[in-house]
Amino acid sequence: METQVEIWKSHPEYTGIEVSTFGRVRTQDRMVSGKGNGTRLAKGRVLKQSYNSSGYLQVGVSIDGKRVTKLVHRLIAQAFIPNPEELPQINHKDSDPTNNNVSNLEWCTPKYNSQYREKYGVPRTEVAGKPVFAINLSTLEVTHFQSQSEAGQALGANTGSINMVIKGSRNQASGFWFVNDDGHAVDAVKSKLHDIGGIGLKIKQGR
Predict the structure, then answer these.
(1) Alpha helices, DSSP H only, in 62-178?
(2) What's the number of CA atoms in the CB half-sphere (13 Å) around residue 75?
(3) Beta-carbon count within 10 A of 163 CB
(4) For a pLDDT cut of 70, what percent of the chain falls above it?
């Protein structure tokens, strides 16, 4: 499968932040006041994401000097997906609220969003709580996590990117390869280790 290229774009409304087609958010490089009268370059960084009470990913950003929380899927759609009809909501095509890849999002009406979830949706607790294995592609160490969220927080990986690796549309996320912990997971891990030159299988538990 062809590897997708991550594209970054400045958010059209909020200055100082960029969003990517993979569903990540980062601050831009900027000049800030240093000690004395000098200034220094503050390098931009990818922002950590967290779950809200509904299972969607959110991120804290600074807007007009105030710290606010924004839904990641809305930031991505606002930057990359035209909305000429000014539709109010955003649908996740695979019903996974953590997969904020731009290809998985579409503007929609509340009725469409509700009907889509009823027809294709899965309980969000299943997505957030699904255990995974992670292979460190540098050390070949295998770690088991109780959820994709736990893996993302421990390894510094975006949960949407983890989903993309699991679904085969991406080769790695933050230097790790992931697979859902299901009936075929151990075989999949062994096969991956064999492909990249690993010997044996030793699994440690995440935090």
Answers:
(1) 72-80, 110-120, 124-128, 148-155, 159-166
(2) 31
(3) 27
(4) 83
The larger pLDDT score, comparing residue 43 to residue 67, is at 67
CA distance 159 to 176: 12
User: What structural domains and CATH numbers belong to the chain?
Assistant: 8-125 (3.90.75.20), 129-205 (1.10.10.10)
Residue by residue, DSSP assigns 7-43 as -EEE-SSSTTEEEETTS-EEEPPEEEE-STT-EEEE-
* Cα 99 to Cα 106: distance, rounded to the nearest angstrom: 12
pLDDT band at 67 (very low <50, low <70, confident <90, very high): very high
Phi first, then psi, for residue 7 (nearest 5°) are: -115, 130
Q: Which amino acid is located at 147 in the chain?
A: S
Residue with tokens 């255990």: 131
Instruction: Please report the pLDDT score of residue 8 as a whole number.
Output: 95
Name the DSSP class of 4: P
140: left (phi over 0), alpha (psi -120 to 50) or beta: left
